[in-house]
Amino acid sequence: MDYFAEYKSKLTTAEEAVKVVKSGDWVDYGTNIGFPKLLDAALAKRRDELTDVKIRGNLIFEPIQAVECDPERKHFIYNSWHCSGYERSLCDRGLCNFIPMVFRNLAPYYRHFLTVNVAMVCATPMDKHGFFNLSCGSGIAKAILDKADVVIIEVNERLPKASGGYSQCISVTDVDMIVEGEHGELPVLPETVITPEETRIAELILDLIPNGATLQLGIGGMPNALGKLIAQSDLKDFGMHTELCSDAYVDLAEAGKLTNKKKTYLQDVGVTGMAFGTKRTYEYVDENPCVTFMPLEFVNAAEIIARNDNMISINNCIAVDLFGQVTAESAGTRQISGTGG
């Protein structure tokens, strides 16, 4: 089969591609660096032609033009499964609805309950076998694309390529339209400033971690502090099984501590569903055969996690009360992030 001929037949402009969106449609965007910036900008230009277009996304770090161009929400209604800092600011301004759910259940939600009229996702350039790689959003992107009536791929030449695993690619035969265009540098999270309190917490945790443990590290100052401490310690042979791969794992890998040799399930590879952080993280996961991207319904499944001995999960929280109840998602009625980890 001539994949490149099929590619060429489906190639179009962002402006032409978004004409498929109709009033009342459900439109899904890719997560984190899979956000389709060119298609979003083209859709925003159609604002006055459309009403009641419901857009879903999550963990998007840069301005969403379809939201910013419509402060009265007459044309576009944006909804997030899991808030980034930017999406949190949209919630504060009344421009984003948070959808409560457990992140590992996202794919089954789409598979069994949701409608997707149009899906717009960024992917790497097509390879010689006719596949686009879904990059750092592989943990959830394929389930959305599988449910969509219309699939539009925005090719981003800067995306790292995710090794897998499964569900990290989509064939050109399953794509309806392809859009190319220039992209700037990938959005990065700023280097976290680690506080003395976070360093002290990390020091206390370090004493509880044995050699050969499989680690899940969240994102933020304390996990990053712990990653740096482990990298500087005499500990060794750690494994990775985590919803999110971030800079803390890069510190461990560069220090030779992240070998995955002692894992009792999926030995020799680190498992993740998503990746974002600084440029170091994107460079680390790019075509790295030691990092396997899997769907979040697999990564976050208790029965899968339980197959690794010495599994240690370390996450930040916002508050703990005297009964031991923990909040990691909201502060009062203000949505901070979502249910994951």
Walk me through this protein's architecture.
- Helix content is 28%, strand content 22%.
- It is of the alpha/beta class and 341 residues long.
- Strands 1-10-8-6-2-3-4-5 form an eight-stranded parallel beta sheet. A five-stranded parallel beta sheet has the order 14-13-12-11-15. A two-stranded antiparallel sheet has the order 7-9.
- The longest helix is centred in the middle third of the chain and has 12 residues, at 221-232.
- The relative contact order is 0.14.
What's the rounded overall pLDDT mean?
94
Helix content: 25-40%
Q: What gross morphology would you assign?
A: globular
CATH superfamily of the largest domain: Glutaconate Coenzyme A-transferase
Strand residue content? 15-25%
Low-confidence stretches: none
CATH architecture of the largest domain: 3-Layer(aba) Sandwich
CATH class (first level) name of the largest domain: Alpha Beta
| Strand segment tally | 19
Rg is: 20 Å
Main β sheet profile: 8 strands, parallel
Output the structural class. alpha/beta
Count of all domains? 2
Strand order of the largest sheet: 1-10-8-6-2-3-4-5
Terminal CA distance reads 41 Å
Q: What is the CATH topology classification name of the largest domain? A: Glutaconate Coenzyme A-transferase
**Alpha plus pi helix count:** 13
